[in-house]
Each structure stands twice: as structure tokens, then as C-alpha cells.
Amino acid sequence: MSSTETTAVDKGEKRSNFTGRIGYVMAAAGSAIGLGNIWRFPYLAAKYGGAVFLIVYLISVYTFGYVLIMSETVIGRKTKKSPVSAFRHFGNTKAHSFGGWINAIIPMLIAPYYSVIGGWVLYYLFSYIQGEVKELGGDNAFTNFISSGTSVEFWFLVFAVCTIAVIFFGVQNGVERVSKVLLPLLVVLSVIVCIYSCTRPGAVEGIKYFFIPQMQNVSWMTFVTAIGQMFYSLSCAMGILITYGSYMKRDVSIEKSTTQVEFFDTLIAVLAGLMIIPAVFAFNGADAAKTLKAGPSLMFITMPKVFGNMGFGMAIGIVFFLLVFLAALTSSISLMESAVSTFQDELGMSRPIATLTYSGIYIVLGTLSSLGFNVLGGVKLLGMDFLDFFDFITNSVMMPIAAIAICLLVLRSVTLKGVEDEVTYDGAPFKRKKVYNFVIKYLCIVFLVIILVSSVLNAFGIIKM
Q1: Is 91 a domain residue?
Q2: Position 250 pLDDT exceeds 60
Q3: Which pLDDT score is estimated for 177?
Q4: Which of 440, 361, 338, 448 is nearest to 396 (CA)?
Q5: Structural domain boundaries enclosing 223
Q6: Residue 3 falls within a domain, yes or no?
Q7: What is the model's pLDDT at position 214?
Q8: 327 domain residue, yes or no
Q9: What pLDDT, on the 0 to 100 scale, is given for residue 294?
Q10: pLDDT one-digit tens code per residue, 396-441
Q11: Residue 5 falls inside a structural domain
Q12: Is the pLDDT of residue 247 over 80?
């Protein structure tokens, strides 16, 4: 059965497709390039050894990341189904069902709280457009904003509407078309901010800090965290790449597409490091290293302070938060698309009905996260507010388990020969076959277990990452 004849719900409807390799690569790369690259990568690189972290991260992307992207794409294209049905295609056991559902549920839980953060980005973007440079750089600006329930909820809903609107238009006219515009624009804006940041007085020390090994900050957690960042950054084990793989035509090279996704992800991660680390050094000087290690506050507290004390602060603030918004939007689109595809496949819904149905869940869960710092601040789950809880349960617990399920599915049901047959369909090459087979057979599951255990222990304060 051809890709245009395969259906998600076996009702005779044609399953949507990307128009070709560029459409898939733009959508998959847009999914991979998100807040994890622009916000999380720079502070982790600064905290865990600079160039050492960068090298471990790059090795991880081109080994573990390569294997996970290839595996999910193969599963999706081979079955032409979203995660639950894709797993069941290879066996109708409880294990197959569990593997499919955990991959399907993850994006349903991530999209709402991710969109809350996307709303924060939108608020900062529009505030810079209005010229509030000094106000945003104030000591309590961010705290005052997230403490305002009405304002946070409003910007979350604005961001949510942007995401939902794209999904309504479908795979080609929505997801693919928007990705083809936003991803190149994101790269261009990243280069502009990067050039500006790296040419500030004192920025050279930040460049050195990023590209020279900082051995005093290296520990075994450097390796665990770098591998974990790869996992977080590439949109693996979220059901997204299975869903996007199901939209890929059979004449598109899976390996070539994967290589291009790896390239875009790596490019933006490195550019993000060059955008943020030199800028912080230019502003903070001797205290820059300590400031960079502060973590999540970097984007919404540190960078506005930097922009407020730099020439052209308003303009660079607009460009910076515009590119962060584009990165967040492309990722939220992919998360919601995976969720909607599951609703279509498992409940037999049309795209409009599936989109509306999930949108209700999306807005309810997102509202819990947006109000968790103010109106619902007294409600805690495992001692965490709603946003932190959803982030912990998905990223630290569910995603490593979902990735293990994918690896086991490939090894036991799809088989390495089945992967090779799908990758080499129509004569396409499988250049890194030996790397793929070795990593998935001997390394992936071991390292995924290490990431899972380390993340959980870190969340409960037993170890510090």
C-alpha cells in the first residue's frame, strides 16, 4: 500500500504526507529546535565544562540521537501510524500497548506547559516592541509578571491560539508550510544576534569559556547531562518523530533527512551558546561564570538585564525574543500535531474534531501551569508547582522510559533487518549502519537507564546535577 493510500484509522481516508524531504526536515528540525537549544544548552555548557560538554553533546547527537531519530522515523514510515497504532502494528501485547501510549501521552502533557513558557516569551517580545527595556531588566520584573495570574494566562492563550491555528490547516498547509518559513528565519535571526553578541567589548572571554575546556567544572555529571540534553533537544521519545515519520513518503531518504535534522539542531545549539555566553561575559565580566550557572533564570532575568545595559538593547531584545518565540512555536506545533494525530488514529476523529478535542485538554492543563505561580500557588504535587511537576514527570521519568520502549521495539519486533530494509528502500544508502546497530544493541538502553535514575535522584535532591 502506498504512503498516500495508507490510513490512520483504516477507514479509507488518505493519510496526510509531507510534500518531500525538505518538508520533513523543516518540520522535524523545527520540532527539535526549541527552548532546549536556545535556553537550556548555553547554561548547561557553561556549568559543565564548556568545550568538554560541547564535545560530549556532539558525540551524543551523532550516535544516540542518530539512533533514536532513525528508529522513530522508521517506525512511523513503516506503519504509517501515530505512536499507539504504530507499536500495536508489531504486536498486540500489553508491552506494545504501554510503549505506544507512553510515547503518545508525553506530547499531550508537554504541549500545555511548554506553551505557558511560550506565552512568557511572547510577553517579553511585545514588551520590547513597546520599548520597555529598562522595566524588563528590573530586579523583580519576571517575578512580578508570573505572579500576575491574568497576564500570564492571557499570553498563554495567545500562544495557544497561534499553535492551534497551524494544526487546523493540516500537515502540508499548516505544519510544513509554517516550518519552511519559520526555520530559515530562525537561523537568520540567530546569526544576527550571535554576531552582535560576539562583537561586544569583553565578549571574547565568553567565546573562550565556551570553546576551551573548563576542567574545573568537569565531572561524571558532565557526561550524563550532555547526553540528557541531547535527548531533550532532539524531540526524541515524544511520539513526534514517529508521527512525522508516518507522513514521510517512501522515496525520501531517512538517513539523509536525519543527518540534516542533526545539523540544524547542532547549528542552533552552538549559535545559542555564542548568543548568550559572550553577552553575559560582556555585561557581567568576572561574575559571568557564576551568572551563567544560575540556570532557568538566564533567559527571563539575566538576558533582559544584559540588553538593558547594551547599545541597541531594544532592537536586540526584539530580535532575540522573536527568534525564541519562533523556536518555541515550531516545537509546540510538533507536540500538538503528535497529540492530534493520536486522537485521529485511536478515536477515528477528523482533524478538526481531533484538534478541538485536544485543544480543550491543552487549555485546561496549560491553565493549571500558568496559574501555578499565582492563583494556584498553594497547590503542590510532590512539592512542585504544576509546571515543574509536568516537566519532571515527562522529561525525567516518562521520556527515558519511552525511549527504552522504542529501543526494545526495534530490537525485538521491528528487527535490525527490518530497519535496514526501510532505510534502504528504493536504493537509499545506510551509511552509518554499523554505528546504528552497535549503539542500539549495546549502549542505548544502558545510558537511558542512567539518565532516568540520575534525573529522578536529582529531582528529589539526592544528587546534584
Answers
A1: yes
A2: yes
A3: 85
A4: 448
A5: 21-459
A6: no
A7: 86
A8: yes
A9: 64
A10: 899 999 999 999 999 999 999 999 999 998 888 899 999 999 999 9
A11: no
A12: yes
**Looking at the 3D structure of the chain, how many domains does it have?**
1
Are 366 and 182 in contact by the 8 Å Cβ rule? The answer is: no
- Give the burial class of 54: count Cβ atoms within 10 A of its Cβ; 0-12 exposed, 13-18 middle, 19 or more buried: buried
CATH for 188: 1.10.4160.10
Contact at 8 Å (CB) between 428 and 208? no
What would the pLDDT profile of 318-349 be if each residue is shown by its tens digit? Answer: 999 999 999 899 999 999 999 999 999 999 99
* Spatial distance between the Cα atoms of 226 and 436, rounded to a whole number of angstroms: 20
7-45 tens-digit pLDDT = 333 444 567 788 888 888 888 888 888 887 887 888 888
Model pLDDT, residue 154: 95
